[in-house]
Amino acid sequence: MKLLANSSQIITVNTDGKNCKRGNELANIGMLTEHAIVIENDVIKDLIPNSSIKNPSRYDIIDVQDKVILPGLVECHTHAAFAGSRANEFKLRLQGKSYEDIAKSGGGIISTVSAVRNSSLNELVKLLIPRVKYFISQGITTIEIKSGYGLDLENEIKLLEAIKKLKSLFTIDIIPTFLGAHTYPPEFKDNYKGYLDLIAQKMLPQIAEKKLARFCDAFCERTAFSSKDVEVIFTKAEELGFHLRLHSEQFHNIGGLELALTHEAVSVDHLEVMTDKQIFKLAAFDIVAVLLPGVSFFLNYEFAPARKLIDNNAIVALSTDYNPGSSHISNLNLIMSIAAIKMEMTIEEIISSVTINAAKAVLMNHEVGSIEIGKKADFAVFNAQDYSEIIYTIGKNLNTMTIKNGRIIYQADEF
Ligand code: NIG
Ligand code: FE
To answer: Are 404 and 135 in contact (CB under 8 A)?
Structure first.
């Protein structure tokens, strides 16, 4: 048996077994002091007061030296599987060109697609390894990674195979999502139906058969897929047993959210331009609103209505959306601080949004996302006296130890 001992605070994100936080529940993060965590067989066995530890030699002790323990963080929305760089587009944007204009003139997602098609499976894996390591160094123990830069059968499968390879290299939970409906590839620019058929008849069935993805995602946007197009994809994906997520209401309101609700999607992501009416609608469903403030910051446009969503009882999660074009940010700590300052979320709400609610967005909330008995022994140990310092210290990683399934998988040089 192991004992995680000598913390300044343990932030349990306790849910009383509900495994999710809605509305004002996000503010309740269950802080314990003078307690230790008992770990047995990779899972959390108990949370005990220090005063009750009569025989410490029974345990294999992990001494966290007066630091703050959080549940292992969950990064629930990334496009980390990409090749190439879009720094040139960043330069153009600084000169006043918009993200959508760049996409319309053949840049954007399509330029990353070319880079991915020109990379081998091994090259992609090599690119991904340091990215995953960086996430782990931040205390992240569960991560979702999407395909979406292959946009043909061979290359979408290559991306998902690269993600699968990572699962054999790391012990953290890696959740693969198929995003073949990211945008229409150039070879189908005059034949949208042809691409929808390819997704529905070839990609989805083969990916399901090879068990390469748990989720099917799509980008519902004027420059990408209409809600009617997404309907075709979702209908087939459901039939094959995929769980659904949707990029929706990012730039234009074209019916994505309503479609996601009809299909009982697990999450709707982005929501920068959602209306008040849609906030009330969403809040009545068991669906996670995944907010990605790094995109609003990176592209310099409006932020999603986090405050209104929480005040109206929605389930809110946060993520980096790490990708080369709209959020070249893989620092979840920075995202948390942006959420505090630009979306008026409280520190406690932010912590719930990167733990239990992010876990729900990838359907891992019964196993991870809070420090509750029976859950995986996944922890992030922050060099702080109080949890608020984690978010107050903007852009700097205060995580000094990452524990997955009860084992230390990362420790900072200066612990
Ligand atoms: O989540 N919205 C669509 N997809 C990504 C951007 C991808 C890219 O620009 O490469 C996003 O913002
Ligand atoms: Fe995204």
So the answer is: no
C-alpha 79 to ligand 1 mean position (Å): 8
Residue nearest to atom 3 of ligand 1 (CA): 219
pLDDT at 81: 98
178 and 47 assigned to the same domain: no
What is the model's pLDDT at position 127? Answer: 98
**CATH number, domain containing residue 55:** 2.30.40.10
| Ligand 2 centroid distance, CA of 268 (Å) | 10
Give the number of the atom of ligand 1 that is nearest the alpha carbon of residue 86. Answer: 10
CA 126/CA 118 separation, integer angstroms = 14
Q: Residue 50's domain spans which residues? A: 2-71+370-411
For the residues 41-64, what does the mean pLDDT come to?
Answer: 96
Question: Roughly how many angstroms between the first and final C-alpha of the chain, as a whole number?
Answer: 23
Same domain membership, residue 236 and residue 138: yes
Is it the case that residue 415 has pLDDT exceeding 90?
Answer: no
Residue 104 clears pLDDT 90, i.e. is over it: no
